[in-house]
Amino acid sequence: MIVAIIAILLKLVGVGFLFVAALGILRLTDPFQRMHASTKAGTLGAGLVVAGATVAIGTTMAIVIGFLTVVFLLLTVPVAGHLLGRAAYVSGASLNVASGRDALEGVLPRRSGDTDEPVKQD
After folding, report:
1. Where do the structural domains in the chain lie, given as residue ranges?
2. Cβ-contact 10, 45 below 8 angstroms
3. Cα–Cα distance list, 94 to 7, 29, 105, 109, 111 (Å)
4. Looking at per-residue confidence, does 22 or 95 come out higher?
5. Contact at 8 Å (CB) between 12 and 57?
6. Residue 38 has what pLDDT?
7. Residue pLDDT, tens place only, 38-86
8. How wide is the angle at C-alpha 78 spanned by C-alphas 19 and 110, nearest 5°?
9. Cα 108 to Cα 18: distance, rounded to the nearest angstrom
């Protein structure tokens, strides 16, 4: 009985984080903010749902597979988010910068606007 309640709570909290990630993707203004919402809340939400399923099943094999799944998420989602952010920056995606300055200016090449010209390497 207690195990079922813990599994349901983990799944519900995970679905809540996944909902927040989806809402962030829909409501935030630029690709970098959307990427942040999807990688942070999405990873935590998916990990909690997997943990809830692992607790609900309760077998040794389920625990091993659940643990490996969460480790895989933690290792791959931040790298994918970084690469997507870098690709969006280099391609010239719009920035909504609160400080008013581009911190990567001069560090990474960046296409200006939505043109079809190739990125200039320095």
Report:
1. 2-90
2. no
3. 41, 9, 14, 15, 11
4. 22
5. no
6. 87
7. 899 999 999 999 999 999 999 999 999 999 999 999 999 989 988 988 8
8. 105
9. 32
The pTM for the full model equals 0.78
3 state SS of 26:
helix
Q: Which of 68, 28, 75 is nearest to 50 (CA)?
A: 68
Based on the number of CB atoms within 10 Å of its own CB, is 55 exposed (0-12), middle (13-18) or buried (19 or more)?
A: buried
Q: What are phi and psi of 105, to 5 degrees?
A: -60, 125
Is the pLDDT higher at 62 or at 93? Answer: 62
Buried b (16+ CB within 10 A) or exposed e, 61-74: eeeeebeebbeebe
Which pLDDT score is estimated for 113? 62
